[in-house]
Amino acid sequence: MKTAKGKDKAKNTKEALKPVDDRKVGKRKAPAEKGETRKEKKAKKDPNKPKRASSAFFVFLEDFRITFKKDNPNVKAVSAEKAPYEEKAAKRKAEYEKLMDAYNKNLEEGSDESEKSRSEVNDEDEASEEVTIPINNAEFCTLPIVFCLLSYRFLKSFA
DNA sequence: ACAATGATTGTTTTA
DNA sequence: TAAAACAATCATTGT
């Protein structure tokens, strides 16, 4: 049982953030450079050896892939689909770093009264600015009436 | 590490 | 030397 040679972790942290096209997919090392030719390596595998059982997550993936294909028949490139999500992820990361900065600052300055949480991260836009529309009392009273009148006329138009 | 998957791409083999 | 075939790589979670 050899442990990981640090390969997985390094790749996951560094390469995973790059877009697909920039990642070194398929850029493997030549077997010859490792002293073995392809056939030798291929012969080393036993086709009769049973594959290990899929975990629950992989069983879920079976269904998910089918479902996703059915819902998105024309999606070939995952990059385009991934783009908006990477965008959101980047935003969350920025938000996180900002919060961490404030958090660390609070730790330095003192620990009392640190509850300020939390403006939830809405993925829609950075339009999280308060959209409170100021109206005066007159508007507050007349708006529902106007709305009712317009609704009435609209419904009446079908009769 | 390794199960499934498919696009991608370097390497090897074959013509 | 070109095209064809092959194999590594990526991401994902759970074991």
TrEMBL record:
Residues 1-49 have a biased composition (Basic and acidic residues). Residues 1-52, 102-130 are annotated as: Disordered. Residues 50-104 bind DNA. The lineage of its organism: Eukaryota, Viridiplantae, Streptophyta, Embryophyta, Tracheophyta. This is HMG box domain-containing protein. Belongs to the HMGB family. InterPro entries: HMG_box_dom, HMG_box_dom_sf, HMGB_plant. It comes from the Eukaryota. Its main location: nucleus. One of its GO terms (molecular function) is structural constituent of chromatin. GO terms for cellular component: chromatin; nucleus.
